[in-house]
Amino acid sequence: MKRYADDYEVVVKKDSKGRDKKIAVYRGIYFEITLSQEQLNKYRVFNLFLLFSIIIVHMVGGFVANQGMYQFYIVLPYVLTFLPIYLLTVGIFRLPKEKRLFRRDEVGLSFKRMKTATIIFLILSGIGIVGEIVFLIWFAKENLTLEIVFLGLLLLELMAGYLLLRLRQSLQIEQKDDKSEK
After folding, report:
1. CA-to-CA distance for 89 and 95, rounded, in angstroms?
2. Each residue's pLDDT tens digit, 14-44
3. Domains, the chain, ranges and CATH?
């Protein structure tokens, strides 16, 4: 990505056959997380558990045959929520497996992407919940059971997203001044 291009320097070295070979060498800032290796493993597992629960609940909510899903102010936030779920998935799967000093692109494409995607997810989910409540109060006429089930699923999804955000906020990422590792 161009955003991280300034952190790398291209160095020309000779290979075993005498040809010039260009190698990208990281010259940027390193970051350290405040978790031990065991805590990092638990962090990854808990994030994966929350992510899969969000995906399952979101998919089940789409199969509820409620009348509210025919309203644009409910279905639009519901559908748009798939983008932050995708970005959250990519960020969680990029979480490091071992504790070490991390490059700026590793932190940006995992931890920071997760935080941003979770915030966007919470905003869109909140808009969907408000839309469903508006529909329940003023426009729902029949089969309120399905509407309440759908609202309950949206609330479960919102709770899981909130737990993801709280989990990410408990993590501290500190910038290291020395570039001793790597």
Report:
1. 10
2. 888 888 898 989 988 999 999 999 999 999 9
3. 30-176 (1.20.120)
